[in-house]
Amino acid sequence: MADWTRVCALDDIDEEDVIRFDHDGRTFAVYRDLDGGVYCTDGLCTHEQVHLADGLVMDDTIECPKHNGRFNYKTGAPLRSPVCVALATYPARVVDGEVEVQL
Ligand code: FES
């Protein structure tokens, strides 16, 4: 089982928003929903290599800033063309007000 890695304080991510998180030469996107839940996916869109942290979060969806493809960031499922390959997702949690991910 992989270790949990600290990302930031929960308050550093606005509700219904996303931040970029770089770790060990990889890049991720970490999301916060309206209920205080946190989620983590690969940072780059599966269509072209564009960072999703520059995209728009709406409900459970992240919209890519380049061609407006959409994923469900909680499951990684592709929702709108041109994306057709799912995003990898990783476990995320909040402990004592700190966001942690398991990569
Ligand atoms: S790069 Fe994300 S939809 Fe094209």
Record keyword descriptors for this entry:
103 residues; Rieske Iron-sulfur Protein; four-stranded antiparallel sheet; 0% helix
Description:
The protein has strands spanning 4-9, 17-23, 26-32, 38-42, 56-58, 61-63, 70-72, 78-80, 89-90, 92-95, 98-102. With 103 residues, the protein is an all-beta fold. It has one domain (13-92): 3-layer Sandwich (Rieske Iron-sulfur Protein). The strands form 3 sheets. Strands 2-3-4-9 form a 4-stranded antiparallel sheet, with no helix packed on it. A 4-stranded antiparallel sheet has the order 5-6-7-8, with no helix packed on it. A 3-stranded antiparallel sheet has the order 1-11-10, with no helix packed on it. The protein is globular and about 40 Å long. FE2/S2 (inorganic) cluster (FES) is lined by residues 45, 47-48, 50, 64, 66-67, 69, 82-83.
Could you outline the blueprint of secondary structure elements for this entry?
Blueprint: E1 4-9, E2 17-23, E3 26-32, E4 38-42, E5 56-58, E6 61-63, E7 70-72, E8 78-80, E9 89-90, E10 92-95, E11 98-102
Antiparallel strand pairs: 1-11, 2-3, 3-4, 4-9, 5-6, 6-7, 7-8, 10-11
Amino-to-carboxy terminus distance: 10 Å
- Principal-axis shape: globular
The quaternary state of the protein chains shown equals single chain
Which compounds are bound in this model?
Answer: FE2/S2 (inorganic) cluster
Main sheet attributes: strand count, strand direction, barrel closure: 4 strands, antiparallel
Query: What is the CA-based Rg, rounded?
Result: 13 Å
Give the number of DSSP strands.
11
CATH architecture: 3-layer Sandwich
Helical amount = under 10%
| Beta strand % | over 45%
Reading the helices and strands in chain order gives: EEEEEEEEEEE
Content-based structural category: mainly beta
The CATH topology is Rieske Iron-sulfur Protein
Q: What is the overall number of helices?
A: 0
Q: Main sheet: which strands, in order across?
A: 2-3-4-9
CATH class category label = Mainly Beta
CATH superfamily: Rieske [2Fe-2S] iron-sulphur domain
Low-confidence stretches: none
Number of domains: 1
| Overall residue-averaged pLDDT value | 97
